[in-house]
Amino acid sequence: MQLSENMQGLFAILFLCFVTSPCLCARTLTTQANPTFNILNFGAKGNGQDDDSQAFLKAWGAVCNATQGIPTLFIPKGKTFMLQPLVFQGPCKPSTINFKIEGTITAPRSVNAWKWPDSHRDSWIQFSYINGLSITGRSLIDGQGAPWWDCFAKSRCERPMALSFHSCENLQLSGVTQINSPGGHVKVYASNGTRISDMHLVSPKDSPNTDGLHISASSNVAVENSTTEVGDDCIAILGGTSFVNISGIYCGPGHGISIGSLGGNGVHATVEEIHVKNCTFTRSSSGARIKTREGGSGYVRKITYEDIVLVEVQSPILIVQNYGSLLPIDAGQAVKVSDITYRNFRGTASFDSAIQLICDKVIGCSNVVLDQIQITSSVPGKKTNATCLNAHGTSSSSNVPQIPCLLK
Ligand SMILES: *[C@@H]1O[C@H](CO)[C@@H](O)[C@H](O)[C@H]1NC(C)=O
Ligand SMILES: *[C@@H]1O[C@H](CO)[C@@H](O)[C@H](O)[C@H]1NC(C)=O
Ligand SMILES: *[C@@H]1O[C@H](CO)[C@@H](O)[C@H](O)[C@H]1NC(C)=O
Ligand SMILES: *[C@@H]1O[C@H](CO)[C@@H](O)[C@H](O)[C@H]1NC(C)=O
Ligand SMILES: *[C@@H]1O[C@H](CO)[C@@H](O)[C@H](O)[C@H]1NC(C)=O
Ligand SMILES: *[C@@H]1O[C@H](CO)[C@@H](O)[C@H](O)[C@H]1NC(C)=O
């Protein structure tokens, strides 16, 4: 039997270290015991045409049931794997699992080619009930969204999310480029302890409702150093979410980094401790946006947006407590909005009304603080201004535009 060069090297090291240092050797062996499961060894073709779903699920079974070390599911580069909708289901035996994606993953190319399992239709690739999952690699995941957008335009057909994470504790997601999602790109739901970095989410500007990242019912989330160029919210934070840090995000085109909309259909929704820092918005329709719907209850509180750069953003700062409502704003039932700070915003707005704080007459918005705001108009000769309705808080006198409408 021919040993590969690697194997020969490994044996040489093992032999040497047994002779010289049995302790160190035991450690080397433990490291070597972290098994790698290459998707090609499970029957994946990687030709971009054949359905590789079963191979992925088989490999997942092996990884999820691995009893030794930290297993890695490896998707090699230079190949394109076509996957039908599928679920990587936990709980798994290992407390940490690596998913290393170097290759390309693609969805079926037409709406009719998607084969749905009976269990769900809401996402293409779903990860459920997995602890310590770490997805890394320089990969491309292509949701083949274009036929879905047509289908949506013609017959409002319901579109799946591309990637969704459901009840995943200590999830890490980094280095993935995701393009052309049918619906939203990435959804994190009911998950505690998520770290997302170096993601690049891309869809055309006019693709309908293709949110970048959706976070709901989740706590302790960090999103760093990522770019989202999508048709809708770059990041949307929804009900039940708390303790989220977002920094180093380039957003645009898109609708900004949004909280909400919350409280639709009279539901109780809570969002708190969301901190957005060092982000750049370029030609997005909004920047820092909070949307709640009339008739809901609950709160949005302890939110900061700071060190924000704006390039021709339509409405950089926006609170709307009656989003999507045509009723007069005095229903007296709304999601409470309080302790909202905007600090150090610099750049340009393409609409005059750069700051809009539109709140319910009875509930109002309280302790809205604006400090070190310098937002000028990107249209020569125009000036930016601020609009308020029932908004209470403080604004520094040096802010541009001035915000005299803010009530003490
Ligand atoms: C792990 O093994 C068990 C028992 O063989 C099996 O029922 C389960 O489906 C496996 N897990 C996965 C994710 O395949
Ligand atoms: C989230 O994880 C942290 C750290 O492990 C833990 O202290 C906290 O209780 C968890 N929160 C929830 C809601 O599970
Ligand atoms: C968010 O930032 C705060 C302050 O820097 C830090 O204490 C906290 O641990 C961070 N949370 C996460 C989930 O990274
Ligand atoms: C994000 O970028 C900052 C600044 O370059 C760096 O300090 C930080 O470590 C990065 N975060 C991650 C998770 O890579
Ligand atoms: C802000 O984010 C950008 C983009 O990720 C990064 O290059 C820069 O180092 C960050 N600045 C700070 C002060 O963290
Ligand atoms: C803001 O500017 C626009 C255009 O100049 C004007 O129509 C509007 O009334 C202004 N709003 C306020 C609150 O000054």
From TrEMBL:
Protein name per Swiss-Prot or TrEMBL: Putative polygalacturonase
Similarity remark: Belongs to the glycosyl hydrolase 28 family.
Main location, first listed in the record: secreted
Secretion signal span: 1-25
Superkingdom of origin: Eukaryota
Alphabetical keyword list: Cell wall, Cell wall biogenesis/degradation, Glycosidase, Hydrolase, Secreted, Signal
Compartment(s) where it occurs, according to its Swiss-Prot or TrEMBL record: Secreted, Cell wall
Listed GO MF terms: polygalacturonase activity
InterPro entries xref list: Glyco_hydro_28, Pectin_lyas_fold, Pectin_lyase_fold/virulence
GO BP of this protein: carbohydrate metabolic process; cell wall organization
Active site (record annotation): 255
